[in-house]
Amino acid sequence: MSEKTYQIQTVVKTGNRVEALVQTGEATSTIFFECDDTALVPAREALVALTLFPAMRAGAELQVGGEVSKRVLGNLPSLQEMVHTWMPGYFQPIPVTGFEPVEKKSRGAVRVGSFFSGGVDGWYTLLKHRDEITDLILVWGFDIPLDKSALFEQARQSAQRVANEMGKNLVVVKTNLREILDPLVPWKWMHGSGMAAVANVLSAEFQRIYISTSQWHGNQPANGSHILLDPLWSPESLELVHEGLEATRLEKIRVVAQHDIALQTLRVCYLNLWGAYNCGRCEKCLRTMVALQIVGALERCTTFRVPIDTRRIRQLRFLDRYYGIYNLENLHALAKQPWNRDLYLAVRYMLTRFYIKEFLLKMNELHPRFKFGTGRWEKKIGKME
């Protein structure tokens, strides 16, 4: 097989497991999904979702090799056009071949699911659609690696507690898709496709599944889970809904903070340093702790075991400018709270350093003959205090 070809080979179901072989050049990888809580289906649409962007990144033809939903196939040109427009030097349009178009007729499914890892976005969607949602979908292999079994068991028990108290079913899906795909395309571009893949293998019993957004209408960066992308992975029998754009991060936290069960189970950390449920030290943990302090709920949130540390906030480093937008929302709220003055100064210091560095790096790109140093600026920022 040519190195410029991705081929989806077998997609089979055995017991509670769906397993697929994907060949890229001379290499063959096995991607699996396992679930003891509901029936899975060997949906080839799931594998299309997982291989389209890696094939575009490699400039390779994607050979589907079987039946695929007419609706999903019809959406592939739009999917390709959008990600190519967003990242023209990274994703290239490719031919998709070897498929048999079919209409995936509804089997009368009535369940409504929502991806739920215990975070702010998932909680907001659950509370908003509490009367409609029947199932919470927790995936092992997304933010918690498969070798972190103790941490995942803690997350599962927490999600089960939520499901019990909210009167929902908990569906746990285990998959190794990140182990296969992370070396090919960053998770930033694959997490929407990953959720779409899980949704498609669950499609036998679900009519609708919510994908909670971390963005809002005024801040929709180009990435793999987007209001323009997620619904396009829906076959005829299943509706994928990109949910939550009407509320900012801080607005969502205000809603979540009204529920004690949410504050007792909230999990936002993706670094999980030392196997912690929430490490309390990474950018996302600290940003969330600041927001909880703003809404007066930090002391009631029992899932952060370390106190908020302004010194760590001042020292935070991050590269993605959208993290800056999240923190800027916190800063504007803190500016109206004189009782949180120390926290305001720490967040302002961190953001000032970030935006100065971002500006100087851009100047270095535009004027490579000149050197715009950042080190001396860091020493001056403290004088703003």
Which key features would you list for this structure?
385 residues; 19% strand; single chain; ten-stranded mixed beta sheet; alpha/beta
Largest sheet: 10 strands, mixed
What's the CATH class label of the largest domain? Alpha Beta
Q: CATH architecture of the largest domain, please?
A: 3-Layer(aba) Sandwich
Radius of gyration: 22 Å
Q: Give the mean pLDDT.
A: 91
CATH topology annotation of the largest domain? Rossmann fold
Textual characterization of the structure:
The chain has 385 residues and is of the alpha/beta class. The chain has three domains: 5-102, no CATH class; 111-243, Rossmann fold; 271-384, no CATH class. It contains 13 helices and ten strands. It has helices spanning 44-58, 70-86, 120-128, 149-166, 177-181, 187-201, 249-256, 260-263, 283-294, 310-315, 321-334, 341-366, 375-381; strands at residues 5-14, 17-24, 27-34, 61-69, 96-102, 111-115, 135-140, 169-175, 206-212, 239-243. The protein has a ten-stranded mixed beta sheet with strand order 5-4-1-2-3-8-7-6-9-10. Helix 1 packs antiparallel against helix 6 (187-201) and helix 9 packs parallel to helix 11 (321-334). The chain starts with a strand and ends with a helix. The relative contact order is 0.10.
